[in-house]
Amino acid sequence: MCRLLPVLCTVRDCHTPLAIDARRAVCERGHSFDVARSGYLNLLQPQDRRSRVPGDSAEAVAARRRFLDRGFAEPIRDAIVAFMQPIHGPVLDAGCGEGYHLGAIDADERHGVDISVAAIEAAAKRYPQCQWIVANADRFLPYADASFGIVASITARLNPAEFRRVLRDDGALIVAIPGADDLVELRGMTRDRVERTVEMFADHFTLERHEHVRHVVELDEEAVTDLLKTTYRRVKPRAGTVTMSRDLLRFVGRVL
Question: Where are the domains of the chain?
């Protein structure tokens, strides 16, 4: 497990670096966290939980993994990874899920944070060469200022201030959001989210590039069932053509 970047304690008003060995992580104030057998750190604090089991459930993670392993999303994933180039320095995937995108990135250091224990457990088992942390990225990213060359949020929660804090001045923020026509055959057309997302980041970032990617795939009923479990949509599964699309936004940070 790569730990070249220092990881910070998530206890409120602490945020000091953690000394990490094979079994636990401890900060200078004595706050201690266990390292899971699969190598990830669970830094989630009780006040950061909105439910007993926050984030994606084990069932949703397993369904997404089955869907992804069949290759349906590879063209979208590959487009996102290509959109990140060039990559200089460590990469952070905030809201990384089971690690599907981070695992495909070619970088010396790859770090993933998610609030779901089930997702991080799956990610750590499949991609042990990356660093995986359970934490609430909506509140605090457990890394020092200006740690990353790339920060990515791929159909995940958005935290402009924290993203800017941990991003280097010469780095880039990559945001991937569902396109208006994403899964249109299953859920109908939705409104374009690009303008709203750009406005959300305007105080901390400047939009450098926007690209829309789209892939149409033929899914059987089993694949549609798994896909719907990952999106929590109560729609009757039916086999057929499904559109998958993303709006990709590349931001550069405003000088702090």
Answer: 40-253
